[in-house]
């Protein structure tokens, strides 16, 4: 599943795909492009998965300058707000469901997105930038010390 979350209003654009290659990613980018107002610049945040940086994707992005890609560092998916949506759909719909086929699962996902979009809520950070950055620094320090301990 690919999903784009508008953090200002909470709306989600989603698309289920069997695979996650650059071909499917490009289809999703085109869907986002079609479903958003043309006069708006779009800043998309994605992980560092190679699919998102494929030369074919990059060539398409070069022809669509209103779309700006930003990539989260490795192991920092929490910086991508759509991950909260993935958590919510997983806990509120997917873990509670029993699906006997892929089409049934896709129908449940699409139904959840439709329901979500009837009453979307914008994402609001509850921590200050300083609090978040301090947490990142602590986490990096902790990871570095663990890596150093395993090297000795």
TrEMBL record:
GO terms for molecular function: nucleic acid binding. InterPro entries: RNaseH-like_sf (IPR012337), RNaseH_sf (IPR036397), Tc1-like_DDE_dom (IPR038717), Transpos_IS630-like (IPR047655). Residues 1-105 form the Tc1-like transposase DDE domain. It holds the Pfam family DDE_3. It comes from the Bacteria. This is Insertion element IS630 uncharacterized 39 kDa protein.
């Amino acid at each position: 599943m690919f999903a784009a979350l508008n953090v200002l209003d909470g709306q989600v654009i989603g698309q289920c795909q069997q695979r996650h290659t650059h071909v499917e990613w490009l289809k999703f980018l085109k869907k986002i492009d079609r479903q958003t107002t043309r006069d708006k610049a779009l800043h998309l945040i994605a992980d560092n998965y190679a699919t998102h940086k494929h030369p074919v994707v990059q060539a398409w992005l070069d022809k669509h300058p209103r779309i700006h890609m930003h990539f989260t560092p490795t192991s920092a998916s929490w910086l991508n707000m759509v991950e909260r949506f993935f958590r919510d759909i997983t806990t509120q719909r997917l873990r509670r469901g029993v699906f006997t086929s892929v089409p049934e699962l896709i129908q449940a996902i699409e139904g959840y997105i439709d329901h979500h979009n009837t009453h979307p809520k914008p994402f609001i950070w509850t921590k200050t930038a300083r609090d978040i950055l301090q947490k990142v620094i602590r986490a990096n320090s902790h990871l570095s010390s663990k890596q150093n301990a395993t090297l000795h």
